[in-house]
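Quiz preparation item.
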């Protein structure tokens, strides 16, 4: 069982609206992101994360996002294993997101 905390979409949307300092990392594939992503999210495909995680500040609060929450949980566990202390998975992924979208 994972020790990664999860956050639901409603809570994340509220935190974004409140201006909380959160780094959202979308680990979906390019074609998935073309359908829209959470505004301000950084797109780092899951397969690229082992090569790009050093672009992220280990002190920031990171919320990981994918389509349903499974890949982002793997990404969350990877970051935690690599020294990131404040990592949260978006429960239900983009399937649960009803907030605004941005497009690449």
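Solution:
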């Amino acid at each position: 069982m994972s020790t990664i905390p999860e956050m639901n979409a409603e809570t994340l949307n509220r935190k974004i609206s409140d201006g909380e300092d959160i780094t959202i990392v979308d680990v979906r594939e390019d074609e998935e992101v073309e359908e829209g992503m959470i505004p301000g999210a950084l797109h780092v495909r899951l397969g690229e994360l082992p090569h790009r995680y050093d672009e992220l500040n280990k002190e920031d609060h990171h919320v990981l996002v994918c389509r349903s929450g499974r890949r982002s949980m793997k990404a969350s566990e990877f970051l935690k294993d690599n020294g990131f202390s404040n990592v949260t998975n978006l429960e239900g992924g983009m399937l649960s997101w009803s907030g605004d979208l941005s497009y690449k």
